[in-house]
């Protein structure tokens, strides 16, 4: 069996990856089948093609591991190899780091390691531990296996008891509006005004709140064509001493560039005076665009082949990697639109000592009643745990919620209902080791372990 595993490492890794992603991102099929205009066979085929592509990365990890290292040293070598291939997955073709295995530990003792080494580091601990068990258990090394288990989970539990960030003596009155607009109506021109009026009417009873959040593209009309609406809302909010952040698509008619953006309205720094004036600087443009959904690779070839390659709002321009925080009523928010929340390095690049909240907005109506929105919320919880800051998550149809600095859900709305969430969210002070150093220590330690795994067998031959 060992020889067979060594003979087909890439094939075994590919099969593992196909099962991993086939089960984990099956929700992609929902958006393709329901909104992409493809028949069932076509939507399933595209989903399997995506899963097969993603499975190449664990296949590559297994191939390198088996070919370059002796089996008894795999637990030392795997962290660096896994780090390398997962980094490639998060970067190649703009990256798709969804479903990294460390996210599964947000409710386990291993979550205690996240403020120190991040989700990436927890993923490496898991694969290292799995390889160690695969080596130890067949040889009945029960004591060492038990010690590893106690060290890994016990250390995570003890580390998790330390409060890296602590609440200030101030809470913010936060309102998030979930409009529950059907996806098939979002870009129908006749529905622009009803949608905008709905969000405004749902918000008006809460204009006395400190901070109001609308989800991604809550204003479906192009920003230059919605200036009167935004200016009126800006003045109304400011007169009540409130600030609002909303999603809106900005289209530059001169350059032809479109941006998926968030803009600030109402009071910016506590004054009762509006500050919105197109195109003011208090805005954020999405950087990590979703392939097919927000930009079309090889656009000249693929446009027109199938409805999925010609969806509304599928040709956006990219915002900068690092942008200033949004400001609303004196509060600073580090934004991440939709699946940008799955890129911890980008979130970290936009955090500053003065940042009060991490803000993520989304429209998960694309994925229906699948497990996709639940995974999205889980990713947001991990970001809160890593950086020790509350995460405000506003969505069109769920899951809208507030996550505290420990990654626990403080409050949330039910899916598929138009509703308003209003809650008190504490401000925090302090920082986490992960916020300060990122993956630095994880990279150094995993690289040293890989070097050790290469050196040990050579040194044994030399000494013998």
Which terms would index this structure?
single chain; 464 residues; alpha/beta; six-stranded mixed β-sheet; Nitrilase/N-carbamoyl-D-aminoacid amidohydrolase; 2 domains; 14 helices
Can you give a write-up of this model?
The protein starts with a helix and ends with a helix. The protein has helices at residues 2-7, 9-24, 28-35, 40-68, 74-89, 114-136, 142-160, 192-203, 227-239, 299-302, 344-349, 372-387, 433-437, 440-463; strands spanning 165-178, 211-213, 243-251, 258-266, 283-285, 326-328, 331-337, 357-362, 391-395, 401-403, 409-412, 419-430. The protein has 464 residues and is an alpha/beta fold. The model is unreliable at 301-311 (pLDDT under 50). Strands 5-4-3-2-1-12 form a six-stranded mixed sheet. Strands 6-7-8-9-10-11 form a six-stranded mixed sheet, with helices on one face. Residues 177-427 form the CN hydrolase domain. It is a multi-pass membrane protein. It holds the Pfam family LNT_N.
């Amino acid at each position: 069996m060992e020889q067979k595993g060594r003979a087909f490492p890439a094939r075994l890794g590919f099969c593992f990856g196909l099962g991993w992603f086939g089960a984990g991102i099956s929700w992609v099929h929902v958006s393709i089948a329901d909104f992409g205009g493809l028949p069932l066979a076509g939507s399933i085929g595209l989903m399997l093609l995506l899963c097969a592509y993603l499975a190449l990365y664990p296949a590559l990890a297994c191939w390198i591991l088996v070919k370059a290292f002796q089996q008894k040293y795999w637990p030392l070598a795997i962290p660096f190899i896994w780090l390398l291939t997962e980094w490639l997955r998060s970067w190649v073709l703009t990256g798709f780091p969804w479903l990294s295995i460390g996210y599964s530990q947000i409710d386990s003792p291993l979550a205690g390691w996240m403020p120190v080494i991040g989700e990436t580091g927890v993923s490496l601990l898991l694969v290292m531990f799995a390889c160690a068990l695969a080596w130890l258990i067949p040889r009945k090394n029960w004591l060492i296996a038990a010690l590893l288990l106690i060290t890994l989970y016990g250390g995570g539990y003890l580390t998790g008891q330390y409060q890296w960030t602590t609440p200030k003596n101030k809470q913010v009155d936060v309102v998030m509006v979930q409009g529950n607009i059907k996806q098939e109506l979002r870009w129908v021109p006749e529905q622009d005004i009803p949608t905008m009026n709905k969000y405004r009417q749902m918000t008006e009873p809460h204009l006395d709140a400190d901070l109001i959040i609308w989800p991604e593209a809550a204003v479906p009309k192009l920003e230059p064509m919605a200036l009167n609406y935004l200016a009126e809302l800006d003045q109304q909010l400011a007169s009540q001493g409130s600030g609002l952040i909303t999603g809106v698509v900005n289209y530059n008619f001169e350059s032809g560039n479109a941006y998926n953006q968030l803009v600030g309205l109402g009071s910016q720094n506590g004054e009762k005076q509006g500050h919105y004036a197109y195109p003011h600087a208090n805005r954020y443009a999405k950087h990590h665009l979703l392939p097919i959904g927000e930009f079309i690779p090889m656009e000249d070839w693929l446009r027109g082949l199938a409805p999925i390659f010609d969806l509304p709002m599928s040709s956006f321009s990219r915002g900068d990697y690092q942008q200033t925080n949004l400001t609303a009523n004196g509060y600073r928010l580090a934004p991440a639109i939709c699946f940008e929340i799955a890129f911890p390095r980008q979130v970290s690049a936009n955090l500053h000592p003065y940042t009060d909240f991490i803000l993520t907005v989304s429209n998960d109506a694309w994925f229906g009643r699948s497990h996709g929105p639940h995974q999205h919320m889980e990713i947001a919880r991990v970001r809160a745990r890593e950086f020790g800051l509350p995460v405000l998550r506003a969505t069109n149809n769920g899951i809208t919620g507030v996550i505290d600095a420990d990654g626990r859900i403080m409050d949330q709305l039910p899916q598929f209902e138009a509703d308003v969430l209003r809650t008190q969210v504490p401000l925090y002070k302090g920082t986490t080791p992960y916020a300060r150093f990122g993956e630095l220590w994880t990279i150094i330690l995993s690289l040293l372990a890989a070097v050790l795994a290469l050196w040990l067998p050579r040194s044994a031959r030399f000494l013998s």
